[in-house]
Design brief:
Four copies of one chain form a homotetramer.
Chain A lengths: L3 E8 L3 H16 L4 E9 L3 H11 L3 E3 L2 H6 L5 E4 L6 H10 L3 E4 L7 H14 L3 E3 L7 H11 L6 E9 L20 H4 L3 H17 L2 E9 L4 E3 L6 E3 L5 E8 L4 E7 L8 E8 L2 E6 L5 E6 L9 E5 L22 H15 L8 H20 L3 E2 L1
Parallel strand pairs in A: 1-2, 1-4, 2-3, 4-5, 5-6, 7-12
Antiparallel strand pairs in A: 7-13, 8-11, 8-17, 9-10, 11-12, 13-14, 14-15, 15-16
Chain lengths: 378, 378, 378, 378
């Protein structure tokens, strides 16, 4: 049972370049996959730094122009881990070149970009996936399973937050490497695209489509020095974004993301309340879920603190033994393993570009509502 | 140092009649007060039940007509613990009769009623107070102290919830004793007035005025049998209510209340995020707060789980020794002790009727926004 | 259904005098009892302070000599809340005078005293009870119910701790009012009798007799100034005490108590592990238990965090509504209500003096083992 | 700065063979190391399975006789991940062959074996290390740093547990692959060597030498079927083991390990109480510590829940960004990175074989005390 080789070309070597590379290397050690991934090339503009990145992670070659990489016949899959403003152009070119395409989230800076990207991969019929990695947290997958099994009954409420505190200082500059998330031209938006997009992707996966939203956004610090030019410039991104909404299934929800919640580093939380059961998960203890089953006997009914480390928990039989937790990067490993498995079977692996487009449509509606001060339909 | 006597006339003997009566009896045992409260009379329509209540709690006499009680010269203070639709009429009459007036929350069924009540007590210059008891949770008071001391710096975010699950069953009837909170004619609204009002009162006390809101409400179960008549009738209350808002100080907030959050019994939670510090409190562990101080050394910075049972915590030197927690009813005891203390010193004790009016104005705006689907100014 | 009157004479007005008095006043408000308790007299040596205590709590009269109080024919029940060195003499005299006797724990300073006391109340056939109040925490009672129903199967392990930190300072004096617990002549022992006794009483109630122990004790601060005389004297009490042991049912256990565990105020914790289930409780969140049921489906098996505030939880239907917690002093109220109920039915109410004696036998064995450095049979 | 190559020969392909192999592969991706590790060979008796293991992890060659592997000149380092009864013979032979030696814990089945192993590596002057991986949990390392900086002052208490529940079923067989930990001839002991050894190693690293112990052990299930032969045989291991002890620094401690604590999968907990500070850590949330600093202002003093994911936390700058947790296997990666770093600098990296010997001396004393029913000096 020899495995097909799959040659990967990675674009971008930042934080996400590292998580993806780790996934490429780890997936095959822990999962039995139909493909053997090869780290064929990594591409970024700075030749010294890309060389050093390639050496560290074992990429066989480097490129400094992404167009050159897409033209290489020895590349099967283009993985986009570069800033948001590059996603659309690269993805569309890669699809047209017949490559499989994986893209870091959010798919586009807005739904228009995402639509063009989606149409490109669908026209080219190439496997495609967006790195909404939190769909591969074992505890979140377990909640999905329980929902699909009907354990919750009718859903009444969903709530999600993504709280950070790393931009509170007025002295933090904006723009440039490591800080492009604060530059609206590059990022497309602030926390709405960076953080809420995660919340929304998971929410719609678990609870179905969002139909309408009423939102508020705020930019607490109005001007920042640019990291490269040194110029003090207006801040274009949203520092905080919150919305109330309705889902197609009739449930209500609140969503909130911010980088100004002192004391929270990356606190993604989600909760879903159904007629018979409720569940809660948060990223700061990603290896646990809280689960409430109303059918438990009354006296001993309570939120069950489930340590997701057993063999019957999603993905966990591939790792260690009960009680031993996994970490953040494993979600990327799971996602890549699922992608290879699905591709080997001729299936697409969610979240596809079309799923990523659906999320961008909601974030667009959120930003629009914050401006219009009205409810906006998705 | 003989104490002045203070004769109390209580109206209503339900859940709140019990918490108030307990406060009247306990306050003097644990606090050194300028008045000695006497449980002079209790009033309710059913003579047998009011007699039994009076015997249990030690009321000296009973009345079955509240107008008769207000006319009694031996009553100094009228305490209103009857359903919401009686608040305005009783309070106004009591004020006109020159009685001190304490009223269970919400003050009115709407801001119009609350305004009339407020004008009545202010015209009569009688001490007055609304039983928003969560302002007297020691941990919440501690958060207020820390805010007043400037420990938080600029405030960015506030969030509050009040989650319950006791009305999920379709079989639960509406209306009548014990269930009047489901009857919109009696209650005025559903969770907006019953639960969100608590969240809003505390929020404005801690974080200042709310200026505008965008809200959504839902009635999940559209018809219920009436408890007394047996008729199936439309449900008029809001089962769930959520809103986003802005405070005058520039901070953003999300609020949510529901009786359809499976697994939560009375989960009032609040969190405030400032530039330098954050704090969290919830009613299910009311004797704790979580506090984050960004000035702690980086390596050992974390949310401090503070067990509010020490002598230097608000109210706690009056109770036991460190480590020994108090419960829910103590908040009423604290509030009544504060009321007597303030009255003895000729001060008013917050929350006054005017404070209760401010909350009713926000709940009115919430209900209005849910209908108009627009942002509404408070 | 008129109630019999029960005249109480309390001896001692310290911390425990307050908790007992509160129980006498509160029990009848929340429980339907066969007796109506009357606070007839309180006794202590200092006439001014006892007068003030009587006024605060509503005692009808005072005494300054406990022998005089025991001789009063209008006293039905003697409640001993004075320091440990007075328990035996008072209890024996009270029993001989035919009074009901309630005694603060530990029963005696040692098992010899406790035995004499037990024989006295049994010879006199008077109702008697020791204030091991933690048996009346609703969550602990629930664990007892579940054990009695066989939910745990064979028991393998028990573990308990009582951690405090209030004596760490070298500057804390010993002896005299408020500090007699540090004076071995008065207290009998240090944490063994003060804290471990609580752990042991609950443990044997839940898990049956302890058969043998191996213990270690330590006095970390060897000399302290005496609070009254000012003399620096050797410290005679044990500051910390830990032991391993076997129960008659074959389970193993560890126990530990200390006043040198920085960060813990009154952290009594207990855990029991059985074949099918486990449970945990701690005093810092006394209104919760953690419960693990191995029969839950594997994927959603976890420790259930049970908020003990529902009507089907022990004692809780007498208090408020679901979600609203009670505090420390309620355990005394429950115990007194149970005592009156049992006495009215001619039953004895555990823990009786004989139960208190059993605990003193274990604490004696612990102290003996710490000296002999051998296993000691209880 | 080209790196020296380091050729590794692994013996054993079970659970620990996987954790070690992962560490060999991951260390260089995340840490800048003086050596480039090469997975040269893996050795085990079953050729098919070892071949498959080699293919999965990328070992260049296989061996089925460990003696053959030790003789290979192209192997620099022997890593022992085979059952306990093979440790001594292999380690001594490897040392004599001049190889670096790493050995899974416990070092020997008893202190006699461990002493011979220690003398062998010291006589050969080869780098050596025991895989007590919990010394490399970032939170545990942080506690060590804080202790070394004097933040805790005088230490009064230490307590540790390791609770599991996987052997409660009577139907679980003993012996053979995957189950050799239940076979006393292979394992040396039960939970004492398997679990308590971890607790003891960390404890002595943090708190110094243990001087004397009093222990109890129990075998709850007395006979089990052998996995290979099918014969029902007496169980020789200790199912549970607990002890009280004194440390050289005067502090007291309790330790407990068991495989019969229903509800706990791998709950290693440790707590240390000092004059000024206390800390707690547990394996089920390994990315957190609880820290109490008595110097915090009284009103807001509490246990700080520290999420160990920041760049100033031990090891964490090598991984992701604040808020994103790592998992269990990372502790092995850290340990291997430290070993290579130390070896490159000519230092030894703790825990060395001599450290492993110290732990085996304590576990020997524990087992001896459980038999002698006396305190035993280490």
């Amino acid at each position: 049972m020899s495995k097909k080789n799959l040659n990967i070309g990675l674009i971008g070597y930042g934080f996400m370049g590292r998580t993806h590379s780790n996934a490429f290397l780890q997936a095959g050690r822990f999962f039995d996959l139909p493909y053997k991934p090869t780290l064929k090339a990594v591409c970024a503009r700075n030749p010294d730094r890309v060389k050093s990145f390639a050496a560290n992670w074992g990429y066989e070659s480097i490129e400094t122009d992404w167009r050159a990489m897409i033209e290489r016949p020895d590349i099967d899959l283009i993985d986009i881990a570069s800033p948001n403003d590059t996603h659309a152009e690269i993805a569309i070119a890669a699809a047209r070149a017949g490559k499989m395409v994986m893209c870091e989230k959010p798919l586009g800076r807005n739904a228009a970009e995402a639509l063009a990207m989606t149409e490109a991969v669908e026209a080219a019929s190439v496997p495609n996936m967006v790195w909404y990695n939190y769909r591969r947290v074992p505890g979140v997958v377990l909640i999905k399973q329980l929902l699909d099994e009907g354990k919750f009954g009718r859903i009444f409420h969903y709530r999600a937050k993504f709280l950070q505190d790393w931009t509170i200082s007025q002295d933090l500059p904006q723009g440039g490497e490591g800080l492009w998330r604060l530059d609206v031209a590059v990022a497309g938006s602030g926390v709405t695209g960076d953080l809420l997009a995660h919340n929304i992707d998971t929410a719609m996966w678990l609870n179905g489509p969002i139909t309408e939203v009423s939102a508020v956004t705020e930019t607490f610090i109005k001007e920042r020095k640019h990291n490269l030019t040194g110029d003090v410039q207006p801040v274009g991104i949203d520092d905080a974004s919150a919305f109330i909404c309705r889902f197609e299934n009739g449930s209500l929800a609140t969503f909130e993301a911010t980088r100004y919640a002192r004391g929270h580093k990356a606190l993604y939380t989600l909760e879903i309340n159904g007629e018979h059961a409720s569940a809660f998960w948060d990223l700061h203890d990603l290896h646990r879920i809280q689960y409430f089953d109303h059918q438990d006997e009354g006296r001993v009914r309570g939120w069950r603190n489930v340590h997701i480390t057993d063999g019957d928990h999603p993905y966990m039989k591939h790792w260690w033994v009960p009680g031993l937790q996994i970490g953040y990067e494993h979600t990327f490993t799971h996602q890549f393993a699922d992608f290879l498995q699905a591709t080997g079977e001729g299936r697409s692996s969610a979240p596809t570009f079309r799923d990523g487009l659906a999320t961008d449509r909601v974030t667009d509606a959120v930003l629009k509502s914050a401006k219009s001060r009205k409810w906006e339909t998705v």
